[in-house]
Amino acid sequence: MHNGLLAAWRTGRSRIVTGPSGPTSLYAAAGPWGRVWSTHAVAAGYLALGRAEIDATVLPELLALGFVGGSHCLIRGVRAVPPATCIEVGRGETDEHCYWPMAERWATCDAGLAASEAEEALLRSLDARLRHETAPWLGLTAGLDSRVAAVAAARLGLDVRAFTWAHAPADAEGGRAIANNLGLAHETLEPGWHDEDTGLAHIDAEVRWTEGLGRMTPFGTIVWPSGMSCFLTGGAGEVGRAFWWRAIGRNHEDPDLDRVVASFRPDRTLRDTPGEVQAMLRDHVRAMLTEIAEAGVEGWALLDVLYGEQRLTRWGRGMLGRHGASTVAAFADPTVMARLAALPVEDRLTDGFTATSCVPPVL
């Protein structure tokens, strides 16, 4: 299970298990056509309700946060199933429970040990998830996160090949240099371009794969490596760079819950919306952060968990696009994310998590 889903069936019963993190979501819906669980929100709506409609009430949240969080979903009548959930489906009864509580997934560690423990957890996790893959490909850029994933795969001796999309020349050149430095096979893939009609058809197809969002890109159709069975990405490395702390947190002091909630300013992105819409958005942000606080998380670390538990999964789902391979987000292992979140703030704000012993210079 690559941060994804596991399903099993026996006579009269079935079990669905969601991953504890990562870019794969599970959606549920119940209607006149039955109860449905699907990795596609649009499919869940169609199969259970006979329709798939955008829920306009959550659009402000999508615009303000970049995702629709909690159990909310962009498709009306469909809900998102939380991570680390086990669903037992029997004749006329359903039991849904958490098999790995949030407080355990995000258990903190000593800041002085966070870097070494994160490195050990990353290597252990990648080895377990990639060891038996026959054709894993790493999406490699000139950035930090995919570079660390490449180094980790090389250290483990995994047969990983790398590719870079050529729409950004700096990424293509940097990705090739990193791959050469590590002795990894590398390809630069040219994007496929399309005209207005084929572009609209492409967007129309994409919304059925995501949560109802058409993934818009400036370079046309994404081209994937031939024969790719597993897509490895540097996803979730942003936790180690205090992604939301940078954007929202303004000092090194850990605030209380009210201060963290107040740091979300819907009036900046939704300045022309009614006050009651902004209040509704703040209430949902507070509800999500309160649930995290009840798991024992405090201060700006609340944002790390909200990112790892919600934005990474829901936003990543909309950005991946269609491909026939499994997906491994390198840093999305809960133990890795918790260790990255425990790094000293000064290191995280300077991208210090990449300055570990496993990262060589790029020649």
Question: How is the topology of this model organized?
Answer:
Blueprint: E1 5-10, E2 13-18, E3 26-31, E4 34-38, H1 41-49, H2 59-65, E5 78-81, E6 85-90, E7 93-98, H3 102-105, H4 111-130, E8 136-139, H5 144-156, E9 161-165, H6 169-182, E10 186-189, H7 196-206, E11 230-233, H8 243-248, H9 257-263, H10 266-269, H11 275-294, H12 301-320, E12 326-329, H13 334-341, H14 345-349
Parallel strand pairs: 8-9, 8-11, 9-10, 11-12
Antiparallel strand pairs: 1-2, 2-6, 3-4, 3-5, 6-7
Helix pairs in contact: 4-5, 4-13, 5-6, 9-11, 11-12, 12-13
Could you describe the 3D structure shown?
By secondary structure, this protein is of the alpha/beta class. The chain is 41% helix and 17% strand. The chain is built from 14 helices and 12 strands. The protein has helices at residues 41-49, 59-65, 102-105, 111-130, 144-156, 169-182, 196-206, 243-248, 257-263, 266-269, 275-294, 301-320, 334-341, 345-349, and strands at residues 5-10, 13-18, 26-31, 34-38, 78-81, 85-90, 93-98, 136-139, 161-165, 186-189, 230-233, 326-329. It has a 5-stranded parallel beta sheet. It has a 4-stranded antiparallel beta sheet with strand order 1-2-6-7, with no helix packed on it. Helix 6 links the parallel strand 9 (161-165) and strand 10. Helix 4 (111-130) runs antiparallel to helix 13 (334-341), helix 9 (257-263) packs across helix 11 and helix 12 packs across helix 13. The longest helix is centred in the N-terminal third of the chain and has 20 residues, at 111-130. The radius of gyration is 21 Å and the shape is globular.
